[in-house]
Amino acid sequence: MKPLLAFAFGLVFGCGILISGMGNPAKVLNFFDIAGTWDPSLAFVMGGALLVTAIGYRLAFRMGRPLLASSFSLPTKQDLDIRLIGGSAVFGIGWALTGFCPGGLVPVLGLGTAPLMTGAAILAGILAARWMIQLSYRKTAAEA
């Protein structure tokens, strides 16, 4: 049941990305071009998503527990560290340069080389970050 629901939710998300135009990198890049051909529609898409999320969280937490799990799995870490800030910066820079974020990239992967190259760059970034984290852990362990 979980895989079927995950597929259904992913399908709804992907359709939302495509319907809103967020699978089109030119539309996203125009949002970032404040001094030129600025397109504010992305702000409305994000605002709508935040509204739906806020309502969804309120309803979900009223239930006491998720439908398909024994408890909610929520992050407990609340401090800002270099990994969070650096990752956010790299994400934003990559999004502004390519017009694709990972969520908006998946529904358009088969539409040409730009999405495939962006996907490869995201994968390379993930692997590089994991490698750097492993190196830092090894260095910390060696110093101890």
Automatic annotation (TrEMBL):
Species assigned in the record: Roseibium marinum
Keywords, comma-separated and alphabetical: Membrane, Transmembrane, Transmembrane helix
Record-given protein name: Sulphur transport domain-containing protein
Pfam families: DUF6691
Domain of life: Bacteria
Keyword rRNA processing: no
InterPro entries hit by this protein: DUF6691
TM ranges: 41-61, 82-100, 106-129
